[in-house]
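Weekly modeling sync, notes
Attendees: S.R. (lead), two postdocs, one rotation student

Agenda item 3: backlog of single-chain predictions. S.R. asked that every request posted to the team notebook include the full sequence so nobody has to chase files. The rotation student volunteered to paste the first one in as an example of the format we agreed on. Action items at the bottom.

Example entry:
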Amino acid sequence: MLLGVRNLSKSYGHTTILADLTFAINAGERVGIVGMNGIGKSTLLRVLIGQEPPDSGSARFGPSVEVGYLPQTTPAFFGQTIEDLILASVGNLRQLETRMRELEVLMAQPAPEHMAALLEDYAQVATRFQERGGYELEHQIDAILAGLGIAHLPRSRPVATLSGGEKARVGLAALLLRSPDLLLLDEPTNHLDIHALEWLESYLASYRGAVLVVSHDRHFLNRVVNQILELEEHSHHLKSYSGNYDAFLRARAAERTKQQEDYERQQEEIKELRQRMRETARQVAHHRMPKDGDKMAYDFKGGRVQQTISRNVRAAEEELKRIEANSVPKPPKPLRFYPNFATEAIRSDQIIKVEGLTRQHDGRALFADLSFSIAPDARILLTGPNGAGKTTLIQTMLGLETPDAGAAKVVGSARIGYLPQSSLPNLSLTILEWYRQTQAGYDEQLIAGLLETGLFRLEDMRKTIAQLSIGQRRKLEIARLMAERPNVLILDEPTNYLSLDVLEAFETAILAFAGPVIAVSHDRWFMERFGGERWELQEGRLVRGEASNPQ
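Predicted structure, as returned to the notebook:
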């Protein structure tokens, strides 16, 4: 057993996050953790590695188990180059290799009484070195850097100078190069393009160690994991399901259907028992002593009837107590997202017109002399490898960045709803305070609007942004987006950080949106459903549809 968790609980104030969790991770297992945003998935990983203490219970790793942890937010890596991170990551393998060489020297001229111990020690070290890929180390370094799309970066380059996506991939590469016994990964797919995603899936599917991963990527979970742990919304317990994400969905749906049927069946049984008790009570009233006072006749007939009725009443009461003592709980009503992008259509042939748009970064042309227009019924999926300039193109179109040449014009009647890939609102503001900055109205109206979305509960309104998970912050941005009543949607990685329940409802709302939509995404599930045109940004050009038809 690599990891054993027993009766683990964690609360913040009066809010329970994790309740009495017990599970184990064994060698070779690949386990996915799912659950709604803010439920405690990232907290669980932090507790497991000791970044946060549990309130009760324990989490213990097996003897000599090496653990690698990838947080959802990338560390700063101050003062380190890519080469520094690589050398630090493979340090344990270098130590094992050094120890092997030392033992080889000792075994060359051993004292006879030490030979058996030396052979045993060497066998253990050599096995560990081989299992961690030590004999293919240089090839492994090249393969991981290429697989994650960062082989082109000079290894002498300071990590601090990289983009956010590049930092995330360098951090993931450094972790994989360590080849730990157990990988703890928190949303590892958020900054990966399709090529890197597919490479990571293949790598983890055949990984020698075990994997415990928090992810919202449905394709990724289907290809990588063989077990799902769901952190439940109401009980805060973990429930285990065998198989991948699709198998989890089927098992959970069947389970919840059965619980609903069992609950309804039991409620009907309780209703029938209470009805029987009421009818019995009426029978008691009908068998009272006759008015002529014939007590002897009453005792002979009526008394026996009363005894029978009393037995029936007691039997019904006992049965009711038994049911209520072992009652099937009413299936909880989950928090549901109700997206609503109701808005009027735009009366224009062109929503956005781009002419000769050019933008450079660090001496490299991200795109050059782009010209195109966006029609009122456009549905465009903008794709391309990491670093191609997709986000820069969107922000330049919207006037958030200045082009080096060319211009982009937006029709005056367009109300653009822009969901950026990431934003950093003032962390000290509460949900309500931040929402109020973008909306007019009394607090009661704003709270009602937030509650109607199904994204938040009343008790969330006074939470600060700092208290929210990254996924909950994303939900707040979506709530703001809907409240703006846009008639144009421009979405940069809209499915990032969202839990699966919110994600699927949001996707459905995007598909039903009446106006033009431009979306940047690497989420293959979303891409398959989106439809429309696919524009790929390749080496500064836009390739529309087939690669043979460049813009």
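Discussion: group reviewed the output briefly. The chain is about 40% helix and 20% strand.
Action items: rotation student to repeat for the remaining queue; S.R. to check formatting next week.
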